[in-house]
Write a structure and sequence with these properties.
Layout: H1 6-14, H2 18-32, E1 60-66, H3 71-81, H4 87-95, E2 99-105, H5 107-119, E3 123-126
Helix pairs in contact: 3-4, 3-5
Length: 127
């Protein structure tokens, strides 16, 4: 098996959709028994003090609650937001609401998708 360079791997990842990349990360974590979450520094506490880890949420899911009255506009925006979807897949996704349309994405990506979808008339929840 030929060894891929870092650049070749990055090029392959750039061609993947966010959903495909999220699935890859899950399989990678399972296969190698690791986690891709950033380590959280814990402050040293005095004796007897309780130490509590506070982890900031970095991965968000964009959930389509309903398409609203402008279903065709929402389908168009879903195709724009979720790369690699055909018309049929986008229509099925919109009709199966409530449904997660983006999983494990950064906050800015989730907010941008929410803004576009709400502008088209959809009801969106970011979790």
């Amino acid at each position: 098996m030929a060894k891929l360079s870092t650049e070749e791997l990055l090029d392959a990842f750039k061609e993947m959709t966010l959903l495909e990349l999220s699935e890859f990360v899950k399989q990678f974590e399972t296969t190698f028994e690791v986690t891709a979450a950033a380590p959280v520094a814990v402050a040293a506490a005095g004796p007897g003090a309780a130490v509590e880890e506070v982890e900031e949420q970095t991965d968000f899911n964009v959930v389509l609650e309903s398409a609203g009255e402008k279903k065709i506009q929402v389908i168009k925006v879903v195709r724009e937001v979720v790369s690699g979807l055909g018309l049929k897949e986008a229509k099925e996704l919109v009709e199966s609401a409530p449904k997660a349309i983006l999983e494990g994405v950064a906050k800015d990506v989730a907010d941008a998708a929410k803004e576009k979808l709400e502008a088209a008339g959809a009801k969106i929840t970011v979790k």
